[in-house]
Amino acid sequence: MPDEPGTVWDRPERGARGPAPVRTRAQITAVAVALADAEGLAAVSMRRVAAELGTGPASLYRYVGGRDDLVDLMIDAVAGEIDLSGPLAGDPVEDLAVLAMHTKDAQLRHPWMLDVPPEPERLGPCAIDYLEHGLRALEPAESMTGQAKMETIAVMNGLASLFARTELQERSSPTERQAAYAAHLTQVVAEGRHPLLAGLVARQVPGPHEDHQALFERLIRRVLAGLIG
Amino acid sequence: MPDEPGTVWDRPERGARGPAPVRTRAQITAVAVALADAEGLAAVSMRRVAAELGTGPASLYRYVGGRDDLVDLMIDAVAGEIDLSGPLAGDPVEDLAVLAMHTKDAQLRHPWMLDVPPEPERLGPCAIDYLEHGLRALEPAESMTGQAKMETIAVMNGLASLFARTELQERSSPTERQAAYAAHLTQVVAEGRHPLLAGLVARQVPGPHEDHQALFERLIRRVLAGLIG
DNA sequence: CAATACTGCGATCGATGTTCGCAGTTTCTA
DNA sequence: TAGAAACTGCGAACATCGATCGCAGTATTG
């Protein structure tokens, strides 16, 4: 693929002249997603993906403008996993809450999503459908401006990411780095300044925490109710 | 600096035996922050920072365990810029709203902060003070659990980042990539599916947008009010 | 049957984070 | 006071990354 065109989505999947490409974008995307699921986003290097496909790194550039494009494909693949077919109840808060939970679930399924730098506007086709769906859910809220609606959806997404992150972090055993920081925190707190923090650090371990699902549901409804109407 | 110890903050600034270090961590941090302010976080490479200090890359590793540690130092330097000296009003919503605005301002001053991968728990001394301050603001809310308080602060931070991002994005001219995606969006929307999105894209340009400050204030108060008490 | 436009890919470039090892310097110990 | 020990500065080098170039081979066009 040469240079000029803008996004991956503008580039044609194959040229009209030469031999048929051996691979598909969908194929490459699937491999990349699987790799990221298994070993994290950092493992998705051109070389690694190419090796997984049994070819050299340079070949991938026939399908994709670069690593960023590949990540865009991956993101939209995950966006496509989110089910938008369910009927809307007609209550913006309720409908957006459901959408938020689906979003969070997708991110739990693909933890590397949280490592994607959140530059906005990388909207592939599925992400566009997603956005439209969110706006449809917000249609009953006639008093809101378009900007307010977009911000509401953005906040909803941000909350989904936030909770996905804490849920994942708690689920997995901490990194060496995280452990070191935890140790450092307890040590600093032991010095006596930061009494409030001390109270929390002490009570950190016990209790299996409130059920995540329920907690997230309640919180997102509260926030959305505060933003809508 | 050898390997074993945990965080940067645990490592002593200098050893007790050899010659006095030529440079300071604070010095290095300042250079790195200035560089990131001017050219973005990606410009903060070991080589670049070293060059800015007039030395070789390897020298930096006497002061810092690696690039991650350097970023940790940078983050905490910014956290230290946030003014926590103002007296608390006693109203959690009000006090956290003020804190949120200070946080957002700091991120506007250092846009690269939004490019730092948001792994949690990288709390340097200033960040710890910040957290304690937030908890102090939440002290009147006696009905909240510790976990709920932490989540409230996390949400507050997330919103600050969210709005800082949109504000910065709007302020700066779009990247080539962003422009390409914007063009692609209008093109997709022109196909007719996505009527709601079409309505928004059409009205995108006009209007200098509502004053950011006011909008953010109102929104964060709403959200916080929904979460507290 | 050319001419054309494409595909696959080995070789390679420049940049990155990081490590090694050595020479020089300061402090501690006996 | 002498020597060992611990540290600092840093040139050289390694592994890995994204990306480009150019050539050989292949399908389509006219």
Describe this structure in words.
- Chains A, B: InterPro entries: Homeodomain-like_sf (IPR009057), HTH-type_TetR-like_transc_reg (IPR050109), HTH_TetR (IPR001647), Repressor_TetR_C (IPR004111), Tet_transcr_reg_TetR-rel_C_sf (IPR036271).
- Chains A, B: It comes from Actinomadura vinacea.
- Chains A, B: Residues 22-82 form the HTH tetR-type domain.
- 2 copies of one chain form a homodimer.
- With 229 residues, chain A is mostly helical.
- Chain A has 2 domains: 8-79, Arc Repressor Mutant, subunit A (Orthogonal Bundle), CATH 1.10.10; 92-228, Tetracycline Repressor, domain 2 (Orthogonal Bundle), CATH 1.10.357.10.
- Chain A is 60% helix and 0% strand.
- The first copy, chain A, contains 10 helices and no strands.
- Chain A has helices spanning 25-39, 46-53, 57-60, 67-81, 92-109, 125-137, 146-171, 176-189, 195-202, 212-227.
- In chain A, α5 (92-109) packs parallel to α7 and α5 packs across α10.
- The longest helix of chain A is centred in the last third of the chain and has 26 residues, at 146-171.
- The first copy, chain A, is flat.
- The mean pLDDT of chain A is 92.
- At the A-B interface, α6, α7, α8, α9 and α10 of A face α6, α7, α8, α9 and α10 of B.
- Chain A binds a DNA duplex (30 and 30 nucleotides) through residues 14-22, 45-47, 55-59, 61-62, 66-67.
